[in-house]
Write a structure and sequence with these properties.
By secondary structure, the chain is mainly β. It has one domain. The protein has no helices and three strands. Strands 1-2-3 form a three-stranded antiparallel β-sheet, with no helix packed on it. A hairpin with a 4-residue loop joins strand 1 and strand 2. The chain starts with 6 loop residues before the first strand and ends with a strand.
Protein backbone atom coordinates (compact mmCIF):
# COMPACT_ATOMS: atom_id res chain seq x y z
CA UNK A 1 0.00 0.00 0.00
CA UNK A 2 1.23 3.47 -0.81
CA UNK A 3 1.35 6.24 1.78
CA UNK A 4 -0.67 8.60 -0.40
CA UNK A 5 -1.89 8.82 -3.93
CA UNK A 6 -4.58 7.81 -6.32
CA UNK A 7 -5.28 4.38 -7.78
CA UNK A 8 -7.76 3.40 -10.45
CA UNK A 9 -8.65 0.35 -12.52
CA UNK A 10 -11.33 -0.37 -15.13
CA UNK A 11 -13.01 -3.34 -16.77
CA UNK A 12 -14.70 -2.57 -20.07
CA UNK A 13 -17.10 -5.13 -21.53
CA UNK A 14 -17.56 -4.87 -25.30
CA UNK A 15 -19.69 -6.96 -27.64
CA UNK A 16 -21.87 -6.97 -30.75
CA UNK A 17 -24.91 -5.73 -28.77
CA UNK A 18 -23.06 -2.57 -27.60
CA UNK A 19 -23.21 0.96 -28.98
CA UNK A 20 -21.02 1.64 -32.04
CA UNK A 21 -18.25 2.48 -32.76
CA UNK A 22 -16.48 0.68 -29.88
CA UNK A 23 -19.43 -1.55 -28.84
CA UNK A 24 -19.32 -0.80 -25.11
CA UNK A 25 -21.86 -2.80 -23.10
CA UNK A 26 -20.74 -1.92 -19.56
CA UNK A 27 -17.80 -0.26 -17.80
CA UNK A 28 -16.89 -1.07 -14.19
CA UNK A 29 -14.33 1.18 -12.49
CA UNK A 30 -12.76 1.26 -9.04
CA UNK A 31 -11.04 4.34 -7.58
CA UNK A 32 -8.99 4.90 -4.42
CA UNK A 33 -8.50 8.65 -4.08
CA UNK A 34 -6.85 8.49 -0.67
CA UNK A 35 -4.82 5.33 -1.32
CA UNK A 36 -6.95 3.23 1.08
CA UNK A 37 -10.71 3.40 0.49
CA UNK A 38 -12.03 2.06 -2.82
CA UNK A 39 -15.19 3.26 -4.59
CA UNK A 40 -16.87 1.24 -7.35
CA UNK A 41 -18.78 2.72 -10.30
CA UNK A 42 -20.70 0.88 -13.01
CA UNK A 43 -22.08 2.39 -16.23
CA UNK A 44 -24.05 0.95 -19.12
CA UNK A 45 -23.21 1.78 -22.71
Amino acid sequence: MTKAGHASTQLQLLGPAGEPPLRYIRTVAAHAEDGRHWRLDSRRG
